[in-house]
Specification:
The chain is α+β, with helices and mostly antiparallel strands. It contains five helices and seven strands. It folds into two domains: 146 residues, no CATH class; 42 residues. 30% of the residues lie in helices and 18% in strands.
Length: 212
């Protein structure tokens, strides 16, 4: 699914009046797309991209993480792991070109406000979220000089059965309201996807196993 690449600025840093020295800028990058798994298609899956092989921070951790000296050992480890996963602006653009040309995916990049006030670790969803991984840099066609992997979760994603149920719900609702039901299937799917994106709502068929 095509999405326009854009960078969302964060923090309050500026390089004006700094003698031409560019401030450190780090980004979290992701793509939105579809995923085929068995006979099911999952829609609007968020693939979060991260740098796998960075061994040292690009700047002292004291400048990247607020009150770093006051953190305990576990908090420092969490902060370090988070910082190492982010991409630089140049890395984002290289990744963007690769994914667009080879896989037809766009990259959205959000600038990380620095210094980081509350380190959350390498994965943004928290420890309770179960993630699956894409070993992007292990693909034969991967040309970049740095390694990038992706992680994603299918929890709560719109998939083939819920898309079908949503279309059927719309058809039935229009029929009961005595409204013209000659909409094309593609248009119905577009409405279901739009409602999911804007409201997070989708339809699930009731089964005998469901408990009220």
């Amino acid at each position: 699914m095509a999405r326009r690449f854009h960078v969302i600025r964060g923090g309050r840093g500026s390089d004006e009046g700094s003698g031409g020295i560019r401030p450190m800028r780090l980004f979290r990058a992701y793509s939105i797309g579809e995923l085929q798994k068995g006979k099911l298609t999952y829609y609007h899956v968020r693939f979060n991209w991260y740098r796998l092989d960075r061994s040292e921070p690009l700047a002292p951790l004291e400048s990247l993480v607020a009150d770093y000296d006051l953190l305990d050992e576990l908090q420092r480890k969490t902060a370090r792991e988070e910082v190492l996963r982010y991409l630089t602006e140049e890395e984002v653009w290289e990744l963007r070109l690769y994914l667009r040309e080879r896989h037809g995916m766009e990259v959205i990049a959000e600038e990380v406000p620095l210094p980081i006030v509350t380190p959350r670790g390498p994965f943004q969803g928290g420890e309770s979220t179960v993630y699956e991984f894409l070993e992007l840099s292990e693909r034969e066609d991967y040309p970049l000089s740095f390694r990038v992997w992706g992680y994603y979760t299918l929890s709560g994603c719109l998939c083939t059965p819920t898309l079908e149920a949503g279309c059927r719900f719309l058809e039935k609702a229009l029929s009961l309201l005595q409204i013209d039901t000659s909409m094309r299937r593609k248009d119905l799917e577009g409405v279901v996807k739009a409602i999911y994106l804007e409201e997070g709502l989708y339809v699930k068929r009731h089964s005998p196993e469901d408990v009220d």
